[in-house]
Amino acid sequence: MVITDTHTHLYSEAFDKDRDVVIQKAIEHGIKRFFIPSIDSTYTQSMLDLEKRYPKNMFLMMGLHPTHVKENYKEELIHVDRMLSNRSFYAVGEIGIDLYWDKTFLTEQQEAFKFQIHLAKKHGLPIVIHCRDSFDEIFEVLEEEKGEELFGIFHCFTGTEEQAKKAINYNMKLGIGGVVTFKNGKIDRFLNKIDLSHIVLETDSPYLSPVPYRGKRNESVYLLEVLKKLSLLYGLDEKEIAEITTQNSKDVFGV
Questions:
Q1: Rounded to an integer, what distance in angstroms lies between the CA atom of residue 91 and that of residue 111?
Q2: What global pTM score does this model have?
Protein backbone atom coordinates (compact mmCIF):
# COMPACT_ATOMS: atom_id res chain seq x y z
CA MET A 1 0.00 0.00 0.00
CA VAL A 2 1.43 3.35 -1.09
CA ILE A 3 0.08 6.43 0.69
CA THR A 4 0.75 9.95 -0.57
CA ASP A 5 1.18 13.04 1.61
CA THR A 6 0.35 15.79 -0.88
CA HIS A 7 1.32 18.63 1.46
CA THR A 8 4.10 18.55 4.04
CA HIS A 9 6.71 21.10 5.11
CA LEU A 10 9.44 18.58 5.90
CA TYR A 11 12.13 21.24 5.48
CA SER A 12 10.62 23.19 8.41
CA GLU A 13 12.81 24.05 11.37
CA ALA A 14 10.41 21.93 13.44
CA PHE A 15 12.13 18.85 11.98
CA ASP A 16 15.75 19.99 12.24
CA LYS A 17 16.55 17.59 15.11
CA ASP A 18 14.97 14.43 13.72
CA ARG A 19 14.05 14.96 10.06
CA ASP A 20 15.50 11.66 8.81
CA VAL A 21 13.83 9.71 11.61
CA VAL A 22 10.45 11.29 10.80
CA ILE A 23 10.79 10.55 7.09
CA GLN A 24 11.96 6.97 7.55
CA LYS A 25 9.15 6.24 10.00
CA ALA A 26 6.61 7.47 7.46
CA ILE A 27 8.17 5.43 4.65
CA GLU A 28 8.15 2.29 6.81
CA HIS A 29 4.39 2.77 7.28
CA GLY A 30 3.69 3.05 3.56
CA ILE A 31 3.79 6.83 3.14
CA LYS A 32 6.35 7.01 0.37
CA ARG A 33 5.43 10.07 -1.67
CA PHE A 34 5.80 13.55 -0.19
CA PHE A 35 4.83 16.73 -2.01
CA ILE A 36 6.66 19.75 -0.65
CA PRO A 37 5.07 23.23 -0.87
CA SER A 38 7.14 26.38 -0.97
CA ILE A 39 6.77 29.35 1.40
CA ASP A 40 9.28 31.95 0.19
CA SER A 41 12.83 32.22 -1.14
CA THR A 42 14.43 31.75 2.29
CA TYR A 43 13.37 28.08 2.25
CA THR A 44 14.33 27.24 -1.33
CA GLN A 45 17.76 25.79 -0.55
CA SER A 46 16.34 23.67 2.27
CA MET A 47 13.79 22.25 -0.15
CA LEU A 48 16.45 21.47 -2.73
CA ASP A 49 18.60 19.78 -0.07
CA LEU A 50 15.65 17.63 0.97
CA GLU A 51 15.05 16.57 -2.61
CA LYS A 52 18.72 15.72 -3.05
CA ARG A 53 18.66 13.52 0.05
CA TYR A 54 15.45 11.71 -0.95
CA PRO A 55 15.23 11.97 -4.75
CA LYS A 56 12.70 9.12 -5.10
CA ASN A 57 10.33 10.38 -2.42
CA MET A 58 10.28 14.19 -2.51
CA PHE A 59 8.37 16.21 -5.11
CA LEU A 60 8.88 19.95 -4.91
CA MET A 61 6.54 22.85 -5.59
CA MET A 62 7.48 26.49 -6.09
CA GLY A 63 5.47 29.51 -5.00
CA LEU A 64 5.01 32.39 -2.60
CA HIS A 65 2.80 31.68 0.43
CA PRO A 66 0.12 34.39 0.92
CA THR A 67 1.17 35.15 4.52
CA HIS A 68 4.64 35.94 3.16
CA VAL A 69 3.32 38.48 0.68
CA LYS A 70 4.85 41.61 2.19
CA GLU A 71 6.56 44.80 0.97
CA ASN A 72 9.11 42.75 -1.01
CA TYR A 73 6.54 40.49 -2.70
CA LYS A 74 7.54 41.54 -6.21
CA GLU A 75 11.11 40.40 -5.58
CA GLU A 76 9.76 37.12 -4.24
CA LEU A 77 7.62 36.64 -7.35
CA ILE A 78 10.68 37.21 -9.53
CA HIS A 79 12.38 34.41 -7.58
CA VAL A 80 9.40 32.10 -8.17
CA ASP A 81 9.39 32.94 -11.88
CA ARG A 82 13.13 32.28 -12.21
CA MET A 83 12.99 28.98 -10.34
CA LEU A 84 10.12 27.71 -12.49
CA SER A 85 12.06 28.67 -15.61
CA ASN A 86 15.31 27.07 -14.47
CA ARG A 87 14.21 23.62 -13.36
CA SER A 88 11.17 21.37 -13.07
CA PHE A 89 8.63 21.48 -10.26
CA TYR A 90 5.41 19.56 -9.76
CA ALA A 91 3.11 22.46 -8.87
CA VAL A 92 2.92 26.17 -8.17
CA GLY A 93 2.19 26.37 -4.48
CA GLU A 94 1.29 27.03 -1.97
CA ILE A 95 -0.41 30.17 -3.18
CA GLY A 96 -3.67 31.92 -2.44
CA ILE A 97 -5.15 34.38 0.03
CA ASP A 98 -5.01 34.40 3.85
CA LEU A 99 -7.08 36.98 5.73
CA TYR A 100 -6.93 35.29 9.14
CA TRP A 101 -3.84 37.00 10.49
CA ASP A 102 -3.68 40.24 8.56
CA LYS A 103 -5.71 41.98 5.87
CA THR A 104 -3.13 44.70 5.25
CA PHE A 105 -1.79 43.13 2.06
CA LEU A 106 -5.04 41.86 0.55
CA THR A 107 -4.50 43.69 -2.76
CA GLU A 108 -0.94 42.41 -2.97
CA GLN A 109 -2.07 38.87 -2.13
CA GLN A 110 -4.65 38.99 -4.90
CA GLU A 111 -2.03 40.24 -7.35
CA ALA A 112 0.47 37.57 -6.29
CA PHE A 113 -2.19 34.86 -6.54
CA LYS A 114 -3.15 35.85 -10.09
CA PHE A 115 0.48 36.22 -11.17
CA GLN A 116 1.32 32.73 -9.95
CA ILE A 117 -1.77 31.23 -11.56
CA HIS A 118 -0.49 32.66 -14.83
CA LEU A 119 2.90 31.07 -14.19
CA ALA A 120 1.18 27.73 -13.58
CA LYS A 121 -0.68 28.01 -16.85
CA LYS A 122 2.50 28.99 -18.66
CA HIS A 123 4.33 25.91 -17.37
CA GLY A 124 1.36 23.54 -17.53
CA LEU A 125 1.40 22.96 -13.78
CA PRO A 126 -1.31 22.55 -11.15
CA ILE A 127 -1.76 25.12 -8.40
CA VAL A 128 -2.01 24.34 -4.68
CA ILE A 129 -4.28 26.83 -2.96
CA HIS A 130 -3.98 28.15 0.58
CA CYS A 131 -7.34 29.55 1.67
CA ARG A 132 -8.00 30.92 5.14
CA ASP A 133 -10.96 33.20 5.85
CA SER A 134 -10.94 33.97 2.13
CA PHE A 135 -13.24 31.62 0.20
CA ASP A 136 -15.09 34.50 -1.48
CA GLU A 137 -11.85 36.20 -2.52
CA ILE A 138 -10.34 32.92 -3.78
CA PHE A 139 -13.43 32.02 -5.79
CA GLU A 140 -13.50 35.49 -7.31
CA VAL A 141 -10.01 34.95 -8.72
CA LEU A 142 -10.76 31.39 -9.85
CA GLU A 143 -13.86 32.61 -11.68
CA GLU A 144 -11.68 35.08 -13.61
CA GLU A 145 -9.04 32.47 -14.40
CA LYS A 146 -11.17 29.35 -14.93
CA GLY A 147 -10.53 27.05 -17.86
CA GLU A 148 -9.13 23.63 -18.72
CA GLU A 149 -5.60 24.85 -18.08
CA LEU A 150 -6.48 25.77 -14.48
CA PHE A 151 -6.41 22.79 -12.09
CA GLY A 152 -4.93 21.75 -8.79
CA ILE A 153 -5.66 21.22 -5.12
CA PHE A 154 -7.56 23.19 -2.50
CA HIS A 155 -5.06 22.54 0.26
CA CYS A 156 -6.38 21.88 3.79
CA PHE A 157 -10.00 22.20 2.74
CA THR A 158 -12.16 23.46 5.63
CA GLY A 159 -15.21 24.81 3.82
CA THR A 160 -18.83 23.79 3.47
CA GLU A 161 -20.32 21.17 1.16
CA GLU A 162 -21.39 23.95 -1.20
CA GLN A 163 -17.86 25.40 -1.23
CA ALA A 164 -16.43 21.92 -1.80
CA LYS A 165 -18.59 21.43 -4.88
CA LYS A 166 -17.68 24.90 -6.11
CA ALA A 167 -13.97 24.16 -5.75
CA ILE A 168 -14.40 20.88 -7.64
CA ASN A 169 -16.14 22.77 -10.45
CA TYR A 170 -12.94 24.79 -10.84
CA ASN A 171 -10.98 21.54 -11.45
CA MET A 172 -9.67 21.39 -7.89
CA LYS A 173 -9.16 18.32 -5.75
CA LEU A 174 -9.80 18.71 -2.02
CA GLY A 175 -6.78 18.28 0.24
CA ILE A 176 -8.01 16.46 3.34
CA GLY A 177 -5.91 16.31 6.49
CA GLY A 178 -6.16 16.41 10.26
CA VAL A 179 -9.19 18.70 10.30
CA VAL A 180 -11.41 15.78 9.26
CA THR A 181 -10.69 14.16 12.65
CA PHE A 182 -11.58 17.28 14.71
CA LYS A 183 -14.87 17.31 16.61
CA ASN A 184 -15.49 20.87 15.40
CA GLY A 185 -13.95 20.35 11.95
CA LYS A 186 -17.40 19.95 10.34
CA ILE A 187 -16.15 18.58 7.02
CA ASP A 188 -16.70 15.03 8.30
CA ARG A 189 -20.45 15.77 8.23
CA PHE A 190 -20.62 15.87 4.43
CA LEU A 191 -17.33 14.56 3.05
CA ASN A 192 -18.72 11.13 2.15
CA LYS A 193 -21.10 12.90 -0.25
CA ILE A 194 -18.03 13.95 -2.25
CA ASP A 195 -16.78 11.27 -4.62
CA LEU A 196 -13.32 9.97 -3.65
CA SER A 197 -12.08 10.87 -7.13
CA HIS A 198 -11.95 14.46 -5.87
CA ILE A 199 -9.95 13.75 -2.70
CA VAL A 200 -6.22 13.73 -1.92
CA LEU A 201 -4.61 13.18 1.48
CA GLU A 202 -2.26 15.58 3.24
CA THR A 203 -0.84 16.43 6.65
CA ASP A 204 0.39 20.04 6.34
CA SER A 205 2.97 18.89 8.87
CA PRO A 206 4.26 20.20 11.21
CA TYR A 207 0.83 21.85 11.53
CA LEU A 208 -2.73 20.59 12.13
CA SER A 209 -2.06 17.24 13.75
CA PRO A 210 -5.03 14.86 13.65
CA VAL A 211 -6.72 13.41 16.71
CA PRO A 212 -5.27 11.83 18.88
CA TYR A 213 -2.12 13.90 18.30
CA ARG A 214 -3.81 17.30 18.22
CA GLY A 215 -1.64 19.96 19.85
CA LYS A 216 1.57 18.10 19.05
CA ARG A 217 3.88 18.50 16.06
CA ASN A 218 2.32 16.87 13.05
CA GLU A 219 4.22 14.22 11.06
CA SER A 220 3.56 12.45 7.79
CA VAL A 221 3.06 9.12 9.58
CA TYR A 222 -0.03 10.63 11.24
CA LEU A 223 -1.64 10.54 7.81
CA LEU A 224 -2.67 7.04 8.89
CA GLU A 225 -5.19 8.65 11.26
CA VAL A 226 -6.69 10.63 8.37
CA LEU A 227 -6.84 7.46 6.28
CA LYS A 228 -8.56 5.66 9.15
CA LYS A 229 -11.17 8.43 9.44
CA LEU A 230 -11.91 8.39 5.72
CA SER A 231 -12.27 4.63 5.85
CA LEU A 232 -15.03 5.08 8.44
CA LEU A 233 -16.72 7.92 6.55
CA TYR A 234 -16.75 6.15 3.19
CA GLY A 235 -17.18 2.60 4.45
CA LEU A 236 -14.21 1.44 2.41
CA ASP A 237 -11.01 -0.42 3.19
CA GLU A 238 -8.05 1.82 4.02
CA LYS A 239 -6.01 0.20 1.26
CA GLU A 240 -8.64 1.10 -1.33
CA ILE A 241 -8.76 4.72 -0.15
CA ALA A 242 -4.95 4.90 -0.22
CA GLU A 243 -4.91 3.58 -3.79
CA ILE A 244 -7.60 5.97 -5.01
CA THR A 245 -6.17 9.07 -3.37
CA THR A 246 -2.63 8.25 -4.49
CA GLN A 247 -3.89 7.85 -8.06
CA ASN A 248 -5.67 11.21 -7.70
CA SER A 249 -2.37 12.79 -6.70
CA LYS A 250 -0.70 11.24 -9.74
CA ASP A 251 -3.42 12.67 -11.95
CA VAL A 252 -2.93 16.16 -10.49
CA PHE A 253 0.86 16.28 -10.29
CA GLY A 254 1.58 14.17 -13.37
CA VAL A 255 3.91 11.76 -11.57
A1: 19
A2: 0.97
